[in-house]
Amino acid sequence: MKREFAFSRLNFVLLAIAMAIVVVGMVLMAGDASTAERFNPSVFAAQHIKAAPLICLFGYLLMIVAILIPSKRKGTEESPKQ
Fold first, then answer.
1. Does some domain include residue 76?
2. How many domains is the chain built from?
3. Is 76 helix (H, G, I), strand (E, B) or coil?
4. CB 3.0 to 4.6 Å from 29: which of 6, 43, 46, 52, for a disulfide?
């Protein structure tokens, strides 16, 4: 008996790519923290406050697209009954 999944292979591949993009965005957002003794001005670098959130947003949007793409399965088309 063959299992039928709700998503096709394309959906799973796109979801994996989207998750990888979000992880890259989160890693780019992380950085050295400031302490009470030392202020780190790189916290406000463009990479941390502009580029990384946009990369994460792109990843999340790709996840939505990956979920909404219809899977094309053989034999799932039903003829209209009259």
1. no
2. 1
3. coil
4. 52
